[in-house]
Design a protein that fits this description.
Blueprint lengths: L4 H19 L3 H7 L4 H10 L17 H11 L4 H11 L4 H6 L2 H13 L4 E4 L15 E4 L3 E12 L6 E7 L9 E7 L5 E3 L13 E12 L3 E2 L5 H37 L1 E2 L2 E2 L4 H29 L5 H26 L1 H4 L5 H7 L10 H15 L2
Helix pairs in contact: 1-4, 4-8, 4-9, 8-9, 8-10, 9-10, 10-12, 10-13
């Protein structure tokens, strides 16, 4: 159920001011420290950002997909690491529980997720399993009372601080996706360990790490849905997550365009601002046009999802276009800033590195192409 317009407008205004006045001034410090200040995380909790997509009955804001997309666009106007702080609670780390959890599971976990008391994470990728997500090797063997979970997950966002993992593991002998089930696995269980955070190209402050499960005893009541439904749950989670990421891409692109315009109107070459040179104008025009297209795709697909329509293809198309688009916009931004865009003073090179990840996680661009083609063929055009 959508918020009333006045309440939602107030939320957007609050997030916009928080990004502009609180987060953007901290971007350089976060990059240098590779960490989000604890006091900022607490402010995010108090604003309700950890519960954007969780129903009001569990303490969240209960935003529709369309509302969540508009908030994500605003959050995209600063380094993506800030959004990642609560992004798994809003998206992939909680939505399996929201979509497939029973009443007891939801009552036990969702209030704490919505408040930010606990951090969630989504454990699907493995050392030998990425895009072929139906081929997971982590196993969960039922012993009559509990499941014994063993395996390693790789590149898991927020693993370093997560309290609860949604884990995809093989429970049967069925090949491929049919043998995969989903589990809620608290970090505190014996046998769960976290690797050292990876050194990454960008998005400093947002950590990814291995998660190792060594014969972890998981209560049967922690399984999400029936055995063999894990892959379907994961795909539904990713459909929503891809729309959220697409919206963030739009926000970053809009931030970059605004920065380019501000710089180009001040920087002078050949006796006039570079904004008056047609080749610079061409890059600005291309960036603005592509960003407008991506915004329209995201909001239209979000509205269709809220209306209950099948948006598997549309979500993949939005993710594919928006993530590729923001990469092009970031590249043009470096070009418009010239030497200043290549050094750290203006933050352009940081965003250039940050946005590269959008074309990889929650399904690479190539996986989105496969989904788009498959769904288009299935629908007959």
């Amino acid at each position: 159920m959508a918020l009333d317009p006045e309440t939602f407008d107030a939320l957007i205004d609050m997030v916009r001011r928080f990004v502009a006045e609180r987060l953007r001034p901290l971007e350089g410090a976060v990059e240098e420290a590779d960490a989000i200040p604890p006091e900022v995380v607490q402010e995010m909790r108090e604003m309700g950002l950890f519960g954007l997509s969780i129903a009001e009955e569990f303490g969240g804001l209960g935003l529709t997909m369309g509302e969540e997309a508009r908030v994500a666009i605003e959050l995209g106007r600063t380094t993506p690491a800030f959004r990642s702080t609560f992004g798994t609670n809003v998206g992939i780390g909680s939505q399996g529980l929201v979509m497939a959890g029973n009443a007891e599971q939801k009552a036990a976990w969702l209030p704490k997720i919505a408040s930010g008391e606990i951090i969630t994470s989504f454990a699907l990728t493995e050392p030998d399993v990425g895009s072929d997500s139906g081929a997971v090797k982590t196993r969960a063997v039922f012993d009559g009372q509990s499941y014994r979970l063993s395996g390693t997950k790789r590149y898991i966002t927020n693993a370093d601080k997560a309290d609860l993992f949604t884990v995809m593991a093989r429970t049967g002998d069925d090949p491929g996706a049919r043998g995969v089930s989903a589990f809620l696995v608290p970090r505190e269980l014996a046998g769960v360990s976290i690797g050292e955070p990876e050194k990454k190209m960008g998005q400093k402050g947002a950590k990814v790490a291995d998660v190792i499960f060594d014969d972890v005893i998981v209560p049967a009541e922690n399984r999400l849905g029936a055995e063999g439904e894990g892959f379907k749950i994961a795909m539904r989670v990713l459909d929503r997550g891809r729309l959220h990421i697409s919206a963030v891409c739009v926000g970053v692109a809009e931030r970059l365009i605004a920065d380019c315009v501000a710089y180009a109107t001040e920087r002078k070459q050949f006796g006039k601002p570079i904004a008056e040179h047609q080749l610079i104008q061409g890059m600005i025009a291309d960036s603005k046009t592509e960003a407008l297209v991506a915004r329209a795709m995201v909001l239209e697909t979000a509205a269709a999802k809220d209306a209950g329509k099948d948006v598997v293809m549309e979500s993949a198309a939005a993710k594919y276009f928006a993530s590729e688009m923001v990469g092009r916009v970031a590249d043009r931004a470096v070009q418009i800033f010239g030497g200043a865009g290549y050094i750290a003073d203006y933050g352009i090179e940081r965003l250039y590195r940050d946005v590269r990840l959008f074309r990889i996680y929650e399904g690479t661009s190539q996986i989105q192409q496969i989904i788009i083609a498959r769904e288009t063929i299935r629908r007959g055009g």
